[in-house]
Amino acid sequence: MREQRTIEPYTNRSWQLLKASCTREDRFLSEISRGRKHRVDSRSVSRPGYDLMKSGKRAHLLAGLTAFLLTLTSPWFATAASQTDATVHKPNIVLVLMDNFGWGEVGVYGGGVMRGAPTPSIDGIAAQGMRLTNFNVEAECTPSRSALLTGRYGIRTRQRENSPPRGVWYGITKWEITLAELLEKQGYVSGIFGKWHLGDTDGRFPTDQGFDEWIGLPRSSDRAFWPDSNSFQPDAHPDIRFAHVMSGRKGEEPKELEVFDRAKRTVMDREITDNTLDFIERQAAAAQPFFAFVTYTQTHEPVDPHPDFYGSTGHGSFADVLAQTDTYVGELLSKLETLGLVEDTIFIFTSDNGREGVPRSFGFTGPWRSGMFSPYEGSLRVPFIIRWPGKIPAQRVSNEMVHQLDVFPTIARFVGADTPTDRVLDGVDQSGFFMGKTDSSARESLVIYIGNTLFGAKWRDWKILLKEMDSDTYAVKDIAYPSIYNLIVDPKEEVPELNYLNDTWVDFPLYQVIEDHEVSLADDPQLPVGD
Ligand SMILES: [Ca+2]
Q: Which CATH class is domain 76-434?
């Protein structure tokens, strides 16, 4: 018989949601959180040691705060800068991040022609590098981008005791150390071209978080619907304004450019590509190591192909955008070749989360269940291809577990940077694995959040879900016993407990992952609230 154990619900925490007026997905999260708040968890049972841990939590927090105050006198930056390894060559980094782009879209993941558009350029990155089939992300835009840029679960920057009002607390907090800030200390110039979605108030734009330049969207793409909507009501709320494309440089206030409507949306990714090409050319001319963060706005809804691609595939807008994206990525690759930078550039293609979650939207997750906002593999697994000729062996495919959290410490190692020591880092260094020094990932577990709610964990090929979710309605289902899936035996997560009875030992490592995560939340120094 299975031992019934449950995880302490997070109802006693001050949940901090994203800005209420922001995006559709943000509002969706608000709904989940509100529903959660009013639900009584009937499964609560005491867990040995846990009450003790809770009672010690305040002491943890005080100790953490003290530790943080001490670090203020010797900021991480100075420590890192003093330890910069000048002998490590500084490769350029091009990181292409798609939006709501499922596991199965690209040719080498079983999509491409099957999705109406071959993807030879993106497939070519895999041929020259490494492709992961078990690369995991957070379940939606903002926590995913935060995790990617900081190496820390999104919950760490969003969840704080006594948190400030929601309108101020949005996106990535100022005190997080982003990949751009880490690279800045290594002499890099960083540019972000595309969607940010990690803060749209003073002090929280990309150029406040380590990027030297930015052109793109502060928030999400669905605001492009507004100017073209014949039911738009501008007097509905004082915060309702049309989105604008924005641009900024470090040390300057970002400027609003054109209104972001459906027409502008069709050319947005073209402009992102053009700006990236220009950035790469400028940095190459200056022999300057660079980080280009290329955050395409497609294939988030609305899926609007550029006029040059509209109708080009004969398979509709999604296939047209897939063809467009492959062409744009091909232009980035060609530019590196023309400039002689192929060997000297780490090139990554990935996505922030699985396919669009709303009914009637497009997108393909390959063999995996459901889409974004869910705790299933179609939400968590996305494509990840990395190329660094001469350093990362070519034509390698691995099903080892990697998380987007790992990008931060792995790139840090590649460029000879130290990672912060004044906070918990959830990412692990995968440089040895990527470079073929070992066949094993440095990670064998992760935790799964939807919004601010812990849904479960993965350990090796196993997965535990404390709650299930209806894939059609997104209704969260409390369950008497957690679901345990073996993702090799049951990749579509169709039959909880299939092949479980002879492997009930797996409870131990799965619950340990969750408990370790909870302890690490308590141990994480509580950095300044709202700063
Ligand atoms: Ca997204």
A: alpha beta
